[in-house]
Amino acid sequence: MNTTDLIKTHNEYIRKSQKDKNFNKTHEEALKILKHERFIHLIVTIAVTVFCIAFFALYLFLAMVLILIVFVILAVLTLAYYIYYFKLENTVIKWEEIEYKTKKNNL
């Protein structure tokens, strides 16, 4: 199951099953998986951004078309990673709020 499917499936589970006795455990596991995914994508996003900046700097010094093409590809990839990371981050925040509310209500 990919991350997008996990998010869709778990959001549906949240809507239907918040009163389920196993909700906290299931939600905690899904949140743990998503946090790990977010961390991995943070590392990849930073790496791609660094390479993108490096190729831009290299292009400024050497002015080669091939380096410019690599820079543009990396810039598009960086933008895509930022959009995806934004989605992951917002989902983690939303799920953490749900976890906090359910744990607070169970006390």
Quick structural gist:
This protein has a domain at 36-107. The protein contains 3 helices and no strands. It has helices at 3-17, 23-62, 65-106.
Explain what the structure shows:
Helix content is 91%, strand content 0%. Helix 1 packs antiparallel against helix 2 and helix 2 (23-62) runs antiparallel to helix 3 (65-106). It has a domain at 36-107. With 107 residues, the protein is mainly alpha-helical. The chain has 3 helices and no strands.
Descriptive keywords:
single chain, 107 residues, 0% strand, mainly alpha, 3 helices
Largest sheet: none
| Poorly predicted parts | none
Shape: elongated
- In helices, the fraction of residues equals over 70%
Helix/strand order: HHH
Through-space gap between termini: 33 Å
Whole-number average pLDDT? 91
- What is the strand content? under 5%
Q: Structural class per helix/strand content?
A: mainly alpha
Total beta strands:
0
The helix tally amounts to: 3
- Provide the gyration radius in Å: 19 Å
Element layout with pairings:
Blueprint: H1 3-17, H2 23-62, H3 65-106
Helix pairs in contact: 1-2, 2-3
